User: Fold this.
Amino acid sequence: MTTARPDLDPELRELLAGMPLMSRLGPEELAQLRRLPSTPVESLLAHRQVDRREVTVPATDGVPIPLSVFSPANTDRTTAAPCVYWMHGGGMVMGDRFSQLDIPLEWLDRFGAVVVAVDYRLAPEATGTTLVDDCYRGLLWVAEHAAELGIDPARIVVAGASAGGGLAAGVTLLARDLGTPAIAAQMLICPMLDHRNTSTSSRQYADGPGVWTGGMNEFGWRSVLGDLTDEEIPPYVSPALADDLSGLPTTYIDTGSAEVFRDEDADYATRIWSAGGQAELHVWAGGFHGFDALYPQAHISATARRTRTDWLARVLPPHSAA
Assistant:
């Protein structure tokens, strides 16, 4: 019996029809994907006036974590800029700090934001809290060096897509519980939030269509959880496990109606509201996982991106003195 599920947006369906899609993800497929060339960041910067700086920050265990800092060139350095701290997608198992970087660079263009992208370690080589801890250590460095970077510490936004969205949620929970650093807002784009993979949307899209299926999601989570038992998994790794979602910064969550993460993302927003917090939720009808990153030219993608930018324009507080 065919599982009933929302259909794809017609334009996305036509675009997706011409793309070879993977039917499964395992160690062999992952090795093949990792051999593909990484995102050519130079092409993203070619038409922009951007100063780029590469730094490394020590992880909890001393391993250097690469960060790329992108700042608008030829700007008024007396005015502190907002910062977007970016965590890339890739199911916790692939990608690098330049993956989906075109998304936050739009906010560099629009707001003069400093964009900082973190190269957290990947599963299955790194497991448990390592990935979220790497991201948190990078965020601490950004906050501690805000004046040097020309960043307004009251306007730091954590953001990420897919696995990066889940890591952004985990970092925000960690920052809340540890009391530092201050986060003005979190932008969670189709975030990967729940290791249990048991929602209705997980079952509806267990085998596609789209670029990330329920089966692939199971592999990604199994890779990052390693030997952890269900009782040992902290909410910083699987944010849907958090009992308390109070005290979080204002939150934006978006997802597609035709994707694996739809229900866990909608549930996360609902639980933020239940805890008295502020969240804006968008479920894009017919959107598959990562649709706007893969096909930014589609009408629904342009609308989704514009809506995020409009939200940031509303929630970012006025700048303070540098």
Notes: The chain has one domain: 10-17+50-315. Residues 299-315 form the longest helix (17 residues). The mean pLDDT is 94.
